[in-house]
Design brief:
Elements (H helix, E strand, L loop, with lengths): L9 H4 L8 H15 L3 E9 L1 H14 L4 E6 L9 H13 L2 E7 L5 H7 L6 H18 L4 E5 L14 H16 L2
Parallel strand pairs: 1-2, 2-3, 3-4
């Protein structure tokens, strides 16, 4: 779903999805550790899918690199049905040094996510992706910070019965649901 979200700037900047070569990234990490003694990194891709995160993690572990890093992730499609796979992948990713994730939720309202924003995922996808990261962290007894943002930058869809108050209520409901787990 890269570049299809209605407020995404990426197609205007890069024109297309570009997955960076992991070998180049590993060489840069090794050079930074060797020359600067820095082992703390932030992967800056804005919607890193779990499949790419896992490939990065596998490469870090195979190289034996001791690093800590954060990354932006996206809500995985069909996350509820894929929970076991997501938890297992996030366990590997956390073991490779992941210490924080950031996820752009935008709004906890399916109509806004699909019709207005064209996000390509649902509130359930958001919830179960976050739940998978938290469960992986719990299973490993390793702390993982999870940051989410509600930045719904669009007006309420015309002809919709959705109100700003409803969006706020749904956002708070999702936060409360995640907190009570």
């Amino acid at each position: 779903y890269y570049g299809k979200c209605n407020f995404c700037t990426h197609p205007n900047i890069t024109g297309r999805y570009q997955a960076r070569n992991i070998d180049i990234t590993l060489e840069e990490i090794k050079k930074t550790i060797r020359e600067m003694g820095i082992g703390l990194f932030r992967f800056a891709g804005s919607t890193t899918p779990v499949s790419l995160s896992r490939r990065i993690a596998d490469a870090l572990l195979q190289e034996g690199l001791i690093v800590e890093y954060s990354m932006f992730i996206r809500a995985e499609n069909k996350a509820k049905e894929r929970m076991a796979e997501l938890i297992e992948s996030y366990e590997v990713i956390i073991n490779s040094g992941l210490r924080a994730v950031f996820l752009g939720v935008e709004a906890a309202n399916n109509e806004i996510l699909s019709k207005t924003m064209n996000k390509g995922n649902s509130v359930d996808d958001i919830y179960f992706t976050i739940k998978a990261t938290k469960q992986a962290s719990y299973n490993l007894r390793k702390h993982l910070d999870v940051g989410i943002s509600f930045i719904y930058p669009c007006p309420i869809p015309s002809g919709s019965n959705i109100t700003h108050e409803q969006v706020l209520k749904e956002n708070l409901h999702l936060l409360q649901k995640l907190k009570n787990e």
